[in-house]
Amino acid sequence: MVGSHSLGYEFAREEEARHHAEELDRRFTREELLALRVYRIRWNDNYLVEATFAGDVSASRMDDARALLGESGVAVHADDLEDYKRATQGGALPGWIRRFFDRG
Hints:
The chain is α+β, with helices and mostly antiparallel strands. Helix content is 41%, strand content 27%.
């Protein structure tokens, strides 16, 4: 989304991911939190919470979201977020994983 910021955090258990997504939804307004999704990551059976915030959300509010998600989740680097999302859609493994395992 144009003028937005996305955060991605990986969780070991679906219950944790859903709980933290619900907390974000409760704590942020619809104007602040534009999209919120929970994905299952196929290659490791973990779960990804992706939260997309409006571009005008303050740095302190973004820090609040990071703190909440970071309680039991692991931050996903912004460059890897698209690979994680593609992997949840049943396509081929992300390029960085293919490169990692392609040693021949």
